[in-house]
Design a protein that fits this description.
The protein is of the alpha+beta class. Helices cover 45% and strands 16% of the residues. The protein has nine helices and five strands. The protein has a five-stranded mixed beta sheet with strand order 2-1-3-4-5, sandwiched between helices. Helix 2 (25-34) packs across helix 3 and helix 8 (153-162) crosses helix 9 (183-197). The chain is elongated, with a radius of gyration of 21 Å. The N and C termini lie far apart (72 Å). The relative contact order is 0.09.
């Protein structure tokens, strides 16, 4: 057994015994790299990744083409690293989807938060509910760059109508920012609320997500019932 093989075995056993709580960022990356880089010391590669991107989360959120620029990282390894947050988000949304009824603003917000895990571009989702607050669907409406997204009011209305929704909750994220609504967020929300009202669908909230934080416009005092089409 080589020195590297012994180190790999020890690190894997430590994970199985203790979990990741006491691991450093370098050790987490080392462990991940074991599964796609064979018979090579992955410690220097883990350091290269952290030096290049700055943090573990930024490594796992980096585009494949950027990961491939780091010494020691090939396409298969880059795809594997990119897959980590995607699988995490899939797991979280699948687990949350078991709650078919979302009767409160908080339950809607917690459910919607899972869709933004690991996303580093601004993305908009629409949660559609029936009259008994049963979830009909949660669909991605648009996706933009890191700072903005183009939101189609028509697509929001069509999605609500196609699912026979009685009410909807809009949600979008502020990647790397704070869950604070901008003037544009408020104006867009009111415009969408008015368009939905015209087809007898109620916009009950707009959730803004930033990392582990979220803000509910409804809970912040905004009312959508009197919104008018501009």
């Amino acid at each position: 057994m080589s020195v590297h093989d012994g180190h790999r075995k020890r690190l894997k056993q430590r994970f199985l015994t203790e979990g990741l709580d006491q691991f450093t960022d370098v050790q987490v990356l080392e462990l991940l790299l074991f599964f796609c880089i064979a018979r090579r010391d992955t410690n220097p590669i883990a350091h290269n990744l952290l030096d290049h991107f700055g943090s573990l989360s930024q490594v796992l959120e980096a585009p494949v083409e950027e990961l491939c620029k780091v010494e020691g990282i090939g396409e298969n390894t880059a795809v594997f690293l990119r897959l980590v947050t995607q699988v995490g988000r899939y797991y979280m949304t699948d687990r949350a989807s078991k709650a078919k009824v979302l009767p409160t603003l908080d339950s809607c917000a917690r459910y919607l938060q899972t869709f933004f895990f690991g996303r580093n571009v601004e993305t908009v989702y629409l949660l559609c509910l029936d009259a008994k607050c049963k979830m009909l669907c949660c669909k991605k409406i648009s996706e933009g760059d890191v700072n903005s997204t183009s939101l189609s009011v028509r697509k929001v209305v069509e999605t609500a109508l196609n699912t026979n929704a009685s009410s909807v909750v809009l949600a979008h994220n502020h990647p790397g920012g704070m869950a604070i609504p901008s003037d544009a967020d408020i104006q867009t929300t009111m415009h969408i609320a008015a368009a939905l009202k015209a087809v007898d669908v109620n916009l009950i909230d707009h959730i803004l997500v930033a990392d582990d934080d979220y803000v509910s416009l409804a809970q912040s005092g905004y009312s959508f019932t009197d919104a008018q089409i501009m």
